[in-house]
Each structure stands twice: as structure tokens, then as C-alpha cells.
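Morning!

As promised:
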Amino acid sequence: MTQTTPKLQDELLNLASLYCDERLDHAQRERLTSLLLQHEELVGLFVEYLQLHGQLVWDRALIADDACSAESAEFQFFADSNATSLPGRGPRKRRARSSGSAREWIFAAAAVVACGVLLTTVNLVRNSGQGNSPSATVVSTDTSVSGPGPSPSDTAAPDPVPDQPQPDLLPETQESPDPDMLMADTLPAVPDKIPAGSESSLAPLETPAEIPESDAAPHLTDREMIARINEMLTDSWQERGVTAAPEAPQEVWVRRAYLTLAGRVPTIDETQRFLTSASGRSRILLVDQLLSDHRTSDNLAGIWLNLLIGRTNPRAVDDRALLAFLVEQFRQNRPWIETVGKLVAAEGRSDQNGATNFLLAHLNDQATPATAVAARLFLGEQVHCTQCHNHPFAKDRTQDEFWSLNAFFKQTERKRVATPDSTTTADKALWELTEKVGADPREMTFYETRRGVPTAVLPKFAGLTPELDRGVSRRAQLVRLLTDDPEHRVARSMVNRMWAHFFGVAFTPQVDDMGPHSDPCLPELLDLLTDGFVRSGYDLRRLMTWIALSDAWQLSSLPDAGNSQPSPESEETALFSHVCSRQMGPEEVYESIRVALASVAGQPLAASIDEHRRKWVNEFVQSWGTDENDERLQFSGDVSQALLMMNGTDLNQAITEAVQALLSASDRPQRSSASEYCLNRIAMSILSREPTSAEVRVFNARLRSLNELPADQALATALEDMTWAYLNSAAFISVE
Amino acid sequence: MTPIPDTCLPPQSAASTGGPGEDFVRLFTQSQRALYLFIIPLVSSTADAEEVLQETNVVIWSKWSQFQPGTNFLAWGRAIARLEVFRHRRRRDSRMHMLGDAVVELVADYVTDQPSDFDLRRDALARCVGRLRDRDRELIQRRYGGGCTGDDVAAQMGRPANSVYQSFGRIRRVLMECVRRQLTEAEFAS
């Protein structure tokens, strides 16, 4: 066995690189072959390199920032193929074999779809990270976007370790890097401070301690606000030479509206009612109706429950109580700042004051997760990294700031409550959240800087130190400061988040990272909405109305030639000249399947069973012990999804029953054939549109292939198969 | 439902027709990535790797009953994948980019016995990508995140293709070093 020199290794790696990019010429191929055959040690190196390449391909989800792909090739795939038609890939002979038995047909389709879908999970996973999916921040998101810094998993201990290695950017060449110099070189230009809204005519609130009344005269009416939004967007499109997408067709829009607002697809009746309504104001009326329907507010409550404490609930707080609290707040359309205030300053028993469960879930590790999660959700700032070091390029995001914010939570305590009564369930302990009795209001919080210098801080937010006296708890002080914040961070972050919920993309690349280092696109629009939101008294329904009725939200989600949506990987930002499609989150899938099958069966929609849904959703979640109590949501449109869905006996059963109900329905019009009517109904229920001619052909072929069965059994089987295929298709799971 | 012939076995739950159970499904989905990484050093392009994986999957499903529960699923899957790689090569023997049989056998032996620490590597890789310089990371994102080829990326960025490919090579090496360092550190820490 000969020794390999670094020179040989270099050569091998160069050849391996060419091999990855398919640019080896004949001579190089020979050379690579002989290198590998002569030097067995190089085989390991070769494999390592190629597997790195393979990982980059496979794990696109880890590195891509995009919330939607601008690559028309990928859209083509989803637009053209649902599992009912075998996509172009795959060896020809597979098709001939598939005219066999029931499931193999579908499975071959799914296996073929699976491979293609596997490698395009990027968009879907990203989509689920934006929009209405919750705090499940995959670890890598933080590392890839919020600049060079230690990833959360590096900072497992809440107390900063002084001799942590300096995070360095990887050097360009192999020479030993000078980290400081590299950092200076590659600092993106720090943008000017985000306009504090001084250009707008927003006057500071007169009485700081009061929550703005919700019937205070708003600055603009809804109509004016929407007109202003439209104007700003149109202006910016013109400026950048961007053509807006065409309007989304009605059947696409209605599905989008129901999914965005009510968290489920429309029933077939709802769809038909909308499509047949002759009124030109049908969209306006629908938005209004959905917003006043408590199913919308309940959907919002569910979304925030996941954001606040995640889905796995590792600390076993009383999620039901928290959900009940949120449902109340949203059903009554309470001002958002009030909800935030109640969550932040909550006190009392976990079963009596549901809001306490938010902090109860995050008070571990000296309340550092509470600080980080509260900052992220309510202020739109990712501060967990500043626990240990100053932000590399945002000048005023310092360690000091983190710990000053944390100081507000430091006097909060939780105590277990002994309960003799039988109302508590065995698995949920009862807790009480209180401020420490007799605590010194000037108690300081200590931390260590990176150089190991111990530092002490008092509670401080936005540069303001509250009055520290015994009367008012620290958290209540924080709420006051949040309300009076001249930058209206609470409002701004909610606007950003809500916008992302509708459009699939926020004003900033990450919906909850709005610090000065992250440049919002269209800052004037963000300001306008923030301003309006504050003046409306933090009225969520009005905010949703403005967004839902803006011209831009009526547009299609498919970019066309003239629509130069910049690719999301680049530094450019989205202009909202089309809506970004996203993937449904697991709750939406669950609800939508329920609704769709009820529609197929012609049954009224029953109430959802929380337990059952939770159990189903939790199949996809894994708790992840980071310093932000993160979770990993493994819910992407890949083969595991399809297979888990396909193997669920529940689902199997439900489909069979639904199809039977459909076939025995008595109100079928005599004119059309049974198969045509049923297929139509299935497509309308699941995709809110009629079957395409390709789908009809596949269905008829399937029906014919079952000719050895009695006619009604064949029809039932074929319809069940189509239902399966539709439910497993990318079109179902995508919110256009 | 149509009676199902023995040779074609659908993925139904064990309860109904005695098809592969939940465990099998779980093992299967968990092994996908590792199988892909097994295949990729053995074929010349990622597109081929996808195809071979797909074919492997079909075989795995059709032979589900031959898998002994409790044994090493990945090893079994790799054996099947190896056969599919060679079948694939025979079908495409006129492809310019392929390496000779002897080399592929050698590499196949190596990856067959490879331990599967892929989760660690994946996390390490994610961290390393996060630490790249912005413009390097942008290149990676365009190439791998956007499904573009190197030529596409070159065209998009207005750079000569050669220079872009060289950048990829350089960046991949840097990432490889970084991942190695991370794994070594992790070993020491544990």
C-alpha cells in the first residue's frame, strides 16, 4: 500500500469535484480510476467528498432560505403532476407493470413521486417555517441566516463560557485566517436605522399606562388603508419594473382564503356557494364572513398555542387552559397588546389563569428561554445568540440587552400546587406563577461577558429602565414599556408575522428576526401597517382585513414570464407581486382531510376532536432540547408523509365510508353518469376544482382495468383510489 | 377491494392484508437518506442517484417479507441498492462519465461497511454552511437550493462557468474540513 501525499489528495479532490459537476474528460477519468485503484486510502476521501455533495443535494432544506421557489421548473412539477399521473421520470417499464392490482398502482405512483418530491422538500419545509407554522425552528435556520455566530446547539449552557472559540467565517483560501479581518471584510453594510415612524404623523401615546381604546378614531378607514397599501405596492412594482401576477381564479382564491383564515379547505357547499355567487363583492363578503366566524379565531388560537409552547409540551403545562385563554382573546377580538400583556405579566394558578402556562413552559434555565421566546414572538427579534456575545453586526444588539430583558423575568417563580381534588388530570401538574415575595426591586442580574468579566444589569427595555419600586412587578413594568415603546415593536412584529401568514413571505427574510441587521423590503409599507395597527388599537381583525383585501392578495401564486420575483436565495427581497404558495401545516392537513371527506360523503361537518388531532400531529414532531426549547417539525411532502398517511387504517376506513356514502347518495342528478358525477364531487371536495381531463383519463383507465369486478365494486374501488391519489398529491397539500 | 396477487405487495397496514407493518415503514423512511448517500459515490450524477434510489425502493417494497425484523435494515437496504447500482450501470453502459467496474466495486465495498453517522454529519454540515462567507453561501444556495446546475448559476451571476465551478470545488473542500473539525471536536467532547 503506497503512501498518499497531500499532493495526491489534492489531486483526488480536484478530480472528485469535477466528477460531481460531471465535467471529467476522458483523461481525467482514467487518472481518477487509477488513483483510486492504486491508493486505497484515497477511496475514503473520495467517498467523503461525494457524500458531502450528496448531503448538500439531499438536505437542501438546511441551506435554502426560500419560502417559495422561483424556479419554474419545480413549480411545473407540482402543477402538472398529482399522484394520479405518473411523472415523466422513471423507467418506462414501470408503467406496464402497474396495470396490476389495487395498491401497487398507487404505490408505484407514490414511489415515483416520492423521489422527485424528496429532493424538492426544500420549498415545502421552508414554507412550513414561514406562514402559519409555529416556533419549530429547525436548528439550522438560525445558523444559516442570522449571520455567523455559534448555533444554538453550541450554546447549550445558559451561562456563557468565557473561552468559547471565536466564531469565524470560513476562510477563502487554506491560509490561516485572521478572523477579525475576515469579519470586517464581509460585514454587510449596516443599514440606516429603521425609520422610527417619525415621518408618519403618529403622535406618541398620551397616557403611557393605558391600552389604546379599540374604538379610538383610527387614522385611516379600512378602505383608505387598503387603497394606500395598493398604492405603495404598485409604485414599488413600477419602480423595479416588475409586472404583477394575474388575478388568481376564483376556485384557487376561495381555497386559499379558507386555508389562511379558517385553517382548512372549504367544504364543497362553501366552494359552490362562493363560485356561484354573482356578486362582484364576493371576495369582500367572504373575508368579512370568515373573520367574524369563530372558526377563524379558533384557528388563530391554535397557531399561537403552537408558537407559544410548541406541540410536544415537554414541561407538561396546561395547554388546554392556555388554548382556552387564547380562544377567548381571539374570539372577542381583544387588542393584541392586551393579549401580549396578559401573557407576559400572568400570575396565578395554571388552571385558573391559562395565560400563565406560556411562561411556565419556558422558565427553565434561569428564564433564558422565556426571554428568547418572548423576544422572538412578541418583538420579532432573535436574541438567543446575544445571551453569550454581542451581535456581530447589529450595533445595539448586545449581551447587555439580552440580560437586561431577562432581568424582567428573574423574579418570577413557579411553585407546584398540592391538589387534593380530583379535577386535575394525572399527567398535568398544577403550578402557580408568582413574583417572588419580598424580592428586592433593585436586585441585579449577573452574567459574564465573553472575556469572562462579570457584569450586572437591572431590567431595561429599549434603553428605558422602569421605576423599580415594590408596588409593581417587574413583568408588569415590562408590559408598560412594551406598550409605550416608541418603535412599536410589538405591533411591527405582529404585522410582519401576519403579512407572512397571508403572503408566505414577510417583510424581512425571517419573520421573527427584524433587528436592525435585517433590512425590511418596503419599509414604508411596513410602517404604514404598523402605524395603522397601533391606531386601530391593535385590532387583529382589521389588520387581517387590510391584508386580505389588498389587491396583491388577490393575485395568483404562479409567477409568469414578466414577473421577475427575485430568487429567494439571493439578497433581494420579495416584492409581493405574487402570493407565495406554501405547504399546509399538519393541523391544516388534518382538518382539511376531515372536511374533504365529509364533503365527499355529503355529510355536514362535525366538530373536530382535539385529542385525536393532537395525536396525529404529534407523529411528526420531535422535541429538541435547545436553549429555546425548540421542536423539530418533520412535516414535509416527502415519502414518509405519504406512507404514514397511506398506512393509517383510520384514513383507509374513512375513505371507504365516504365513497360508499357518496355512491348511495340519493340527490345525484339523473343526467350525468354516476362515475362522472362522483369523480367530480371528489375533486371538488379535495381540491376545490373540477378534475382535469388528464385526471379523468387516468380514472377511466383505472375503471377499465377493474373489469373483472362487478360494476359497482369496480366503481367504488376506482373512486377510493382516486381519493387516495388526490389526498396524497402535492396539489392537495399546497396552499396556492 | 381487488384481491392482491402475491407477487405485488402493496403498502397496507399489517392489520388488513398482512402487508408491511408500521415498523417497516418507519425503518424504510429513516433509511432513505442513508441509502441515497450510499448510492451517490457509486453513480456519476445526482439524477442517476435519484433513479437508482427509486428503483431500490420499489425492490425493497416488493421484498418486504424477506426482511427479518430485528436485523439491520440499512445493511439489507444497501445490499439491494448495490445490486440496483450495477443493474443501472449495465443499462447505461454508454454513458461517458462513468468510472470503470473495478473502481466502482472498490468504492462499493468501502461504503457497504461504512458506519452511518449521518445525522451528526448533517448537523455539522448545516453549521458549517452557516459559517461560510455570504457570497460563498449564496453560491451554494443557488446551486443546491435552487436546483440549478453550475452553468445556470454561472449564467445567473454573470460569471464564467469555469470560475464558478472552481469556486464550488473550493467551497466544498472548505466545508469538508469544517465538518471534519466539528466531528473531531464532538468526539473529544463526548
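The longest helix of chain A spans residues 40-58.

Hope this helps with the figure draft.
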